[in-house]
Amino acid sequence: MFLKGRILPFIGRAIVFLIVFSVVWYFIAPAYNSLLAAVAERLIPSQAILTVQHTTIYIHPIVDAEPVGGIYASALHYGLLLVVALISATPGLKLVQRLKFFGIAVISLYIIHVITIVSFARAALSSPTPSVSQNPLLILLAVIGSDLFPVLIWALVSYKYFRDKQVGSLTCPPKRSPVSC
Prior knowledge:
This protein is mainly α.
């Protein structure tokens, strides 16, 4: 009953929200990528330049040089879309709570995205050969930051809306029952 009553409708709503947000995000993503690149570029302690071409952020060691690496930013965005869809589909949240949770999620993931881009850029700029894909710590940061962290954010802000109210609470039988509390 729990699966049919709560989880399946939630999953259906989450999928619908994810599809709608993905379509809208297609138009917002270039501006978000430009903002990510602008902030990350200030945190890289060199003359490196980050350029954005729709879904990819390229790392240039100096102006007018060939890029030494690139970050497919759409892979980072998926977690942001997922957490917004999950919060939107969570039953029992009031509008003010949803907006507060959206703010927490977006700001947290923006910081994670900037940290990921700065880490990749530093690794690409410090290596004589672009071997960023060989660094397991960077891959772990990208996976946790873009895939696991959004789900953890959603779980932390919405866990109480999925608890079964009957589990763990004692209910007394009717007064006419031979069994008493």
